[in-house]
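> call design_seq(struct)
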């Protein structure tokens, strides 16, 4: 199981910088890691629909309404990115196979908008869906639940942010960003194979009988 310090040391190792024993060390590396770690962690969480940070929640409806939308809901406090609203069948937006078109087509997509109320005290989700249930990426701080590929991605992204203050190298920063983007690509491929939903095949023969 990883710790924050271990993740920071992976980032520092990517730079060829000295390891730290604590974020409270007097070293520049510790100070920069302490300054940047949480922001970078949340940025990496937001960059991908990580399974360990994925939540589903029925939203609390607000009494006020806003032009253009039928309903307003309060976003969960821990919501970093609102991903999808489940449709009336309980399924999130996704793809199903259409035999007529001989292709997978998007289904169950529910429109929504993220906004803030007038006094900036509440983040809201606006939609036309009644009793909305949201799939979202939550802010997760416990490194014990991070997956190995997320830790790898986080250490690379953190290293890229540390490259200029610790090494004064924009070239190194750019190289680490490219490595980070490659890891995200691997994560997206892995996520696509984590679950399975049987395709809904639309049959022209059955349709003709209706």
């Amino acid at each position: 199981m990883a710790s924050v310090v271990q993740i920071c040391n992976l980032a520092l190792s990517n730079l060829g910088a000295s390891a730290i024993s604590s974020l409270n060390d007097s070293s520049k590396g510790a100070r920069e890691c302490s300054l940047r770690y949480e922001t970078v962690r949340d940025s990496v969480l937001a960059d991908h629909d990580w399974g360990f940070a994925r939540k589903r929640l029925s939203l609390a409806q607000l009494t006020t309404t806003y032009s253009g939308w039928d309903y307003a809901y309060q976003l969960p406090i821990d919501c970093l990115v609102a991903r999808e609203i489940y449709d009336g069948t309980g399924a999130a937006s996704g793809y199903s196979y259409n035999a007529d078109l001989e292709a997978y087509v998007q289904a169950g997509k529910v429109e929504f908008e993220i906004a803030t109320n007038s006094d900036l005290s509440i983040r809201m989700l606006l939609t036309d869906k009644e009793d909305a249930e949201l799939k979202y990426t939550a802010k997760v701080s416990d490194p014990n639940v991070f997956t190995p590929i997320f830790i790898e991605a986080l250490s690379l992204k953190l290293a890229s942010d540390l490259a200029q203050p610790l090494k004064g190298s924009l070239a190194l920063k750019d190289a680490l960003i490219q490595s980070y983007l490659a890891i995200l690509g691997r994560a997206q491929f892995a996520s696509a194979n984590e679950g399975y939903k049987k395709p809904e095949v639309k049959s022209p023969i059955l349709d003709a009988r209706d």
